[in-house]
Write a structure and sequence with these properties.
With 573 residues, the protein is α+β, with helices and mostly antiparallel strands. It contains 19 helices and 18 strands. The protein starts with a helix and ends in a 13-residue tail after the last helix. Belongs to the WSCD family. It holds the Pfam family WSC. One of its GO terms (molecular function) is sulfotransferase activity.
Length: 573
């Protein structure tokens, strides 16, 4: 019996060693395989084309509208997917084909859709990096002060850079807008103003390091590190360049009640009045004869009913305005009555989407909603460039229900039915396609080059994205539970009425003055500067025929759901 037990024990020991060696071999083999794959990916990336250069598109993918050749750099994106077949010609533009075709391509699009946000961020901050190397703290450090984001002491412009903020960056931004002081808080927020904060704090309470500059102090929790920027102002742009003529308006009946600050000055000039109002931290400078008034757009003076310029003698000189009319100028000062934002204090009971096709103005709509409601908006994705510029909801989980609504470009049945309601933002497909193509190749604020427009990628892009524009609307109309349809062009033309509809849809009550503040800050930080004119027509006759058929399909679908059809400028005549 003992002998048999000894043999069994010896056998089990051998099995233990065998299992140990097999496990070790398995782990080593897996590690080697992982290293090999990593090396292969790195080699492919180093031998691949630059990020701004197009790869050739295989003929099979060109036929189905595969627009993103960069996805071919990663063969794993194509594993397990069959080659998509072109539908019959008669069925090519039917709603059913649009939705089915879109669902097949959606997974690929989703993978690379936001890839360029991180790629373009270095381009957008290139000038800022150069400034960081050369900028010094030219202003005097005034000390550490208390800070309340809702009742701010520095009441001028506000800037965010949650990755790259430096003292020099903040000083330059405030100096360009003719402010005297620059204050930094939380390591990433910049506040400008002309009045030094009254409540000082202990120096050690300003302990947050600047996000983009090691060793520099950028405030703290409810604390501001304040710098004087007087020395910078000499090198800043002339103030007149930052003053915008708003027009000729009928003067309110009681100017002293309407405007909180005033000045009477013989030989008054625009520069004198705008400088005075900037010092007082008001966004409007109003001139009537030798009288200068400062204030905000209000219900009494909304700037909605401009007069013929001849009523003000057709001149912008201060001496020509008088009597019942006045000249209005926008100063460099930001209207801060609507800049405070926060997360919802309790989870929202209604899960609301802000849905749009890419390039349809979703970021601009988020800017308007956040400033109108005072609450952050979320995102189904994460865009570092947006987060760094103050869209703090980008980092919040999209299903947290702490944001007033959630940005999405998704259009699948499952993704749509997750939301209780949605604002469906629609833009002219010609404008949307061009805006998204610019974003892909030059970021949120840049323009694609002529080489990009004339490459093979542009027709491939139109072929695929035009169908996506249509199917996005069709699927939300089909599966959306409660929709508010907003047309980008109508929102742009009638901002206050349309924004009121959106805010009421979100079940938020706002004041008229806050909406006027939003209108005064309507552009936000992601408006492309001007309209870059191209010396050629990007859309061929075939592209226009394709897009126009999709426009008619969407217009018919909207009317079928008892919504107003597309604006007349969309519909081909």
């Amino acid at each position: 019996m003992a002998k048999a037990f000894f043999r069994l024990q010896k056998f089990l020991r051998r099995i233990q060693f065998l299992l140990f060696f097999l496990t070790a071999a398995y782990l080593m083999a897996g590690s080697l395989l992982l290293l090999q794959r990593t090396r292969l990916v790195l080699q492919q990336g180093s031998r691949g084309t630059p990020s701004n250069q197009a790869l050739p598109v295989p003929e099979e993918m060109g036929r189905v509208g595969m627009t993103e050749p960069r996805s071919l750099q990663n063969p794993r994106l194509l594993v397990g997917m069959d080659v998509l077949q072109e539908p019959a010609l008669g069925q090519q533009h039917s709603p059913h084909w649009l939705m089915s075709r879109n669902s097949e391509l959606r997974q690929l699009r989703r993978r690379w859709f936001h890839r360029f946000s991180s790629d373009q961020e270095p381009l957008q901050t290139a000038g800022f990096k150069a400034m960081k190397r050369t900028a010094e703290h030219k202003g005097t450090y005034m000390g550490c002060f208390t800070h309340d984001s809702r009742e701010r002491t520095l009441k001028g412009a506000v800037f965010y850079d949650l990755r790259k903020m430096t003292v020099g960056h903040c000083q330059e931004a405030c100096a360009e807008r003719a402010y005297s002081y620059a204050g930094l808080a939380f390591g990433a927020e910049c506040y400008c103003g002309n009045t030094l904060p009254a409540a000082a704090a202990k120096a050690e309470e300003c302990s947050s390091e600047c996000k983009g500059e090691k060793g520099s102090v950028c405030g703290g929790l409810n604390r501001l590190s304040v710098y004087s920027v007087e020395q910078l102002r000499a090198g800043a742009r002339p103030l007149r360049r930052n003053v915008v003529y708003r027009g000729c308006f009928r003067a309110p009946e009681n100017l002293t009640d309407t405007f909180p600050a005033s000045l009477i000055q013989p030989n008054l000039t625009v520069e004198m009045c705008s400088e005075f109002c900037s010092k007082k931290e008001f966004p409007l400078a109003v001139i009537r004869g030798q009288e200068c008034y400062c204030g905000y757009p209000t219900r009494r003076f909304s700037l909605h009913e401009g007069m013929d310029g001849r009523r003000c003698s057709g001149s912008h000189n201060a001496s020509t305005a008088g009597g019942d009319y006045c000249l209005v100028y926008q100063t460099p000062v930001q209207d801060t009555r609507c800049t405070d934002r926060k997360f919802l204090t309790t989870k929202s009971k209604v899960f609301v989407a802000l849905s749009s096709f890419p390039g349809a103005g979703n970021t601009w709509a988020r800017h308007l909603i956040e400033h109108a409601t005072g609450y952050y908006t979320g995102s189904y994705y994460f865009d570092g460039a947006l987060y760094n510029k103050g869209f703090k909801g980008e980092k919040d989980h999209w299903r947290s229900r702490r944001t007033i609504c959630v940005k999405t470009h998704e259009s699948g049945k499952t993704e749509i039915e997750m939301f209780d309601s949605a604002i469906l933002l629609i833009r002219n497909p010609y404008k949307s396609l061009m805006a998204e193509f610019n974003r892909k190749y030059a970021g949120h604020l840049g323009y694609a080059t002529d080489r990009n427009w004339k490459s093979k990628e542009w027709p491939d892009f139109v072929n695929s994205y035009a169908s996506w524009w249509a199917s996005h609307v069709l699927e939300w109309l089909k599966y959306g539970k409660r929709l508010l349809v907003v047309h980008y062009e109508e929102l742009k033309q009638s901002l206050i009425p349309k924004l009121k509809e959106m805010v009421e849809f979100l079940n938020v009550t706002v004041t008229e003055d806050r909406l006027l503040c939003v209108e005064n800050n309507r552009d936000g930080n992601f408006k492309r500067p001007g309209a870059k004119q191209k010396n050629f027509e990007p859309f061929t006759r075939e592209m226009k025929d394709l897009i126009n058929r999709y426009i008619l399909t969407v217009d018919e679908a909207l009317k079928g759901r008892n919504f107003s059809g597309l604006p007349r400028e969309y519909v081909p005549r």
